[in-house]
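Practice problem. Given the sequence and the SMILES for magnesium ion, write out the predicted structure.
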Amino acid sequence: MSAAPEASTAHLVAVESPSKRFFRATEIDTRLLGMVGALILIWVGMDLIGVWKDQGFTLNPLAIWDNHSFLTPRNLWNLLVQTSAIAVMSTGMVLIIVMRHIDLSVGSMLSFIGVITGVAQVYWLSPWLGSESPVIWIVGILVALGAGALLGAFNGFLVAYAGIPSFIVTLGGLIVYSGAAWWVIRGETVAPMDANFELIGGTPSGAWIGGKASWALAAFICLAIVVGIFTNRSARARFKFPQRPIWAEVFLLVVGCAVALGTAWVVNAYPWPAKVAEAYAAEHKIPIPPDGADGLGLAHGFAIPMLIALAVGVIMTFMATRTRFGRYVYAIGGNPEAAELAGVNTRFITLLMFMTMGILTAVSACITSARLDAATNSLGQTNELYVIAATVIGGTSLAGGVGTIYGAMLGALVMQSLQSGMTLLNFDSAVKDVIVGSVLVFAVWVDQIYRRRQA
Amino acid sequence: MDAAKPLPLVEMKDVSIAFGGIKAVDHASIDLYPGEVVGLLGHNGAGKSTLIKVLSGAYKRDGGTILINGEEAHIGNPRDAKRYGIETIYQTLALADNVDAAANLFLGRELRTRWGTLDDVAMEAQARRVMGRLNPNFRRFKDPVKSLSGGQRQSVAIARAIHFNARILIMDEPTAALGPQETKQVGDLIKQLKAEGIGIFLISHDIHDVFDLADRVAVMKNGQVVGSGPVTAMTKDEVLGMIILGKCPPGATPGPGAMAA
Ligand SMILES: Nc1ncnc2c1ncn2[C@@H]1O[C@H](COP(=O)(O)OP(=O)(O)O)[C@@H](O)[C@H]1O
Ligand SMILES: [Mg+2]
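Answer key:
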C-alpha cells in the first residue's frame, strides 16, 4: 500500500519546497488558507476593538485577556444562525457562477417565497386546519420549496432554452419578484408564522438541540471524516494508485475533527437564556443553583438553521463532486462548447441548476421568515448582493469553471462576521455598507493578484 | 466481405451549411468505407471542419442527407452522432480545461458506482490504461487539463475518441500539437484502428501525412468538393493543384468545386 505512492511524485518532490509539498499533499488551497486568516483577523480584531471601546479606549493587557466582546459563545452562536440563510444560497450561487451565469433574483425571490408561505400559513392553512395543526409547518415548507423550484426552473428555462442572458433574466426577476411580493400582500406584514415553522429560524427554545446531541453530532462528523479517509485510501489501493502521504491524511483528520469539536464546544458554552432556563427548571422541579440559571448546565448547542445549513452544504458538496450533474456543471463552466460536443445536455443542466438555486432560495426564505416570525415584501432585499459577495470572497471565479461549496459558505461567514462585528460596535448602517462593499472589491483584487502570481 | 462493393459506412450527400451569408459547405458529398482512411484536404477556411462537424452533430446542416450503413441517419446533436458510433477529435480538442484527464475522457459517459455516484477511481484506472497506450510517460492524472502541454492535451482528446469503440472516427488535424515521435505514434494508431475495420476521416493540411496514411483523398475549396480519388491514382503535385487551383486531375472524380476544364 505504501510502495506505490512515492513512485510517481518522486521527480516532483525533489524540486518542491516543503510548503509547496504540504499544499500539494493536503490538496489545501492557499486561497482557503487566506480566507481562514481573514476570518481570524476579523474575529480577533472585532474582539479587541470592542474590549478597547468598553474599557474607555485604554489599553489594559489584562482586560484584553479576560474580557471579550465579539468572541463570546453567545455572539458566535448568533453569528452562525445569521450566516445560515446566506450560506445556504451561496452553495447554489457557486455552481451558477461556475457555469458562467449569475442569479440576481435570489433576494426578491426570497421575499416572494416568504410572502407566499406566510400567506399560506396565516390566511389559508391556519383558519382551515386550526392554528394548532401540526400539518401547517409541513405544508408551509412544501409550498415554499415548490414555489422555489417553479420560479427557479422558469429562470432556467429562459436562460437555457430561450437563450436570454442570465444577467438580464434574473435582473428582470429581481424586479418582478419584488413587485409580486408587494402585490400579494400590498406591503402588509404577515405574522405570526406557525409555531412549529418558527423553529426553522432558531429563535424559540425548541430550536436548539442541546449539549448532548451537539457533542454526538460533532463526534459523528469526526467518525465520518475517518470513514471517508479510509474508503478513499482503500479504493485507491485496490487500483494501486498513488496515495496521499499518511502525515497529510492525519493533518486533515485532525483539522476536520478540531473544527467539528471546537464548534460544538462553542455552541455548548452558550447557556439558555435565564428566563427560559428558570421556567424549564420550575416545570421539571429542578432546584436552581445559587450561582443562577447558568449553573443548570442547559446549553443551546446547535440551532436548527445551523443544521439546515450544514446539511445543505453536505448535500450540495455531494452533488457537485460525486454526481454526473455536478461534473457537468463544472465541465460546462470550463468549456460550454466542449461539454455540448461531448454529448452533455447543457441546456437541461442549466435549467436544473437554476431550479436548484430556486429551491435553495426557498430554504433560505423559510429560515429568514421563521427567524423574523413574519413575512414582508422586503424580507430578502439586497440578499442577492450578499450571496454573490460571499461566493466571490469564497474563491469562485467570475470567469467560470472554478469554485467550491465550502469556500462560498466560509465566504458567507466572513461577510456575516464583518457585518455582525460592526453592528456590535454600533457602526452606522451607512458606514457598514461602505465597508462591506469595499471589502468585497478588495478581496477580489487580492485574489486577482494571487492568480496572476500563480500563472 | 462480398466481392461486390460493400455498403459505405458513411455517405454524405449534397450537404450544405451557411453562416450568415457565407456558404461554409456547399453541396459537398463524400463517403467512407469500413477499414478505410479518407484524407480530407484543403486550405484553411475551405470548410473541412465544418463539413465533419455536420457529421458529428455539432452543426445542423441546411440541406443534404447523411446515410450510415445505407440508412438515413438523424443526427441532430453530438449525442445522436455518438449513438451511431461516430467519435470525433476536434481541431480545437474540445476539452473542459478545468477538470482532469479522466473527467474529460468520460465526459458525457461517466462510469458510476452501483449507487449511481461517479466512480472516479474506476475512471482513473481506465484513463491510465488508455493513456498508457498513447502517451506512456503521462502521469498528471490529478491536474486540470489546462495545465497540460499541447501534446498531452491532444493525447487526452485522442484517448477519448478511441476509448468507446468507435466505428467511424473523425480526426481533425490530430497531430497539430504533436512532436515527430508522437506524430508517428498517432500514425501507428491509425493503421491499427483501420485494421480493426474502423472508418476514419483524417483531416489535415499537410499532404505528406495524408499520403502516407490515407487510401483516398477528398479535396475541398471554398466549401465545395473539388474532387476525390484513391491516393494511388494521383501524385502529390496533382493533389496540390486541386488544393490551390481547384484543378481536378484525371485520376480523381471531379466534384462541384472542380475548375471548369
Ligand atoms: N461557427 C461559425 N460561424 C461563422 N462562420 C464559421 C463558423 N465556423 C466556420 N465558419 C466559416 O466557415 C468557413 C469554413 O471554415 P472551416 O470549416 O473551419 O475551414 P477549415 O477547417 O477547412 O479550415 C470559414 O470561412 C469560416 O470562417
Ligand atoms: Mg479546420
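Check your answer against the key. The interface with chain A takes residues 56, 58, 77-79, 82, 88, 90, 92-99, 103-104, 107-110, 112, 116-118, 121-122, 124-125, 139, 144, 146, 160 of chain B (CB under 8 Å).
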